[in-house]
């Protein structure tokens, strides 16, 4: 009951939180300094560090993956659909019109 592991262990491994550090990430260091100026401290700021990790990719790579992931399959299916439609005579738009 519960899950699709089929006894092979978890489908992913949760990384150790200690591997993520804001040191060396300018955006998060700047945020930490801005909070410190106001007398605030965010102990959970490291939870955003994974977004800046090189393995996560650049903004363009993430956007490309998000918006164009299904494009090749969708385009292929559209071409096949139009081809089948043409072969079946569905592309024929000859309708009977009354000239009254």
Which key phrases capture this entry?
single chain; 100 residues; 3 helices; 39% helix; NDUFB3; mitochondrion inner membrane; membrane; respiratory chain; electron transport
Description:
This protein is 39% helix and 0% strand. The protein contains 3 helices and no strands. The protein starts with 25 loop residues before the first helix and ends in a 13-residue tail after the last helix.
Which percent band covers the strand fraction? under 5%
| Uncertain stretches of 5 or more adjacent residues | none
What class would the helix/strand composition place it in?
mainly alpha
Question: Oligomeric state of the chains?
Answer: single chain
How many distinct folded domains? 1
- Largest sheet report: none
**What is the β-strand count?**
0
Q: How helix-rich are the residues, as a percent range?
A: 25-40%
> If you average the pLDDT, what whole number results?
81
Report the end-to-end length measured between terminal Cα atoms.
70 Å
Radius of gyration: 27 Å
The H-and-E topology, N to C, reads as HHH
Q: What is the 3D shape? A: elongated
Number of helices: 3
